[in-house]
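[User] I wish I could look at a protein chain and see how it folds. I have put the entry right below:
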Amino acid sequence: MTDHGLTEYQARVYLTLLDLGSATASQISPLSKVPRTRIYATMQQLHEKGLVQILPETPLRYKAVPFATYLHALADDMRSRAKQIDTGLDTLAREFAINPQQEPESRGRFEAIYGRKNVRERLLKMYDGATREVIGIGTTKSPGRILGAFMPDLVDKAKQGVRLKYAFCFTPENREDVRALLKHAEVRHIDFMMPVYMHVFDGKEFLMSHPIPDDDSSYRGDDIAIWTDDLAIADAMSEMAERIWEMGTPAANLLEEDRGAKRVEVTRP
């Protein structure tokens, strides 16, 4: 019977029912040597297979169904499944065809980082490893936090020829920080408020953080960030950050307009 899809317990119970004709579960258990803790589950499994009838009595009684009936149903099911396989053979062959690659595509890692101090530590490592380009899109408070947390790294990376590109929404409160940042990086103004800030390094690492609260502190905060070095995601976010940065207005242009406006006010009679 095990060759026809029955487990050992199911086979014992079914053979016992063949001898008894019909019986309750408590009567079947000792004769079949199937534990009482397993008897009801086994009876239900046999019923689902079509080998047992449940008689609506109190207590419930069970009656064996001829094995030939089960075999006919099993054969019909196998023929149906075989027909389905034959029909979908070409499609399945194409779907699961061998497609060798010279190098298997690797998946990157993902991490959730909690706390501004921990986010800062991860960004410091990312700055240290940057060799080509850093793109940062941030909130109105990001210029001050970047200066406070990463100023030595900005100076070193700028000297090494790493291109530093940032974009923020300029406000009267962050103008001076933007001017200071502009000495080492290419900074642009975007005309919308970012609720988070994101950094992409060499198109290989990506970090997006929600600053909680969005203030000037570089160390204290309940920030939560997501970091990944998955190349596909990092590259996609790099493209997105690049587009946002390119849409921005160069900071030098806006700051020059500010100076011009101030000169007009001073010389006005």
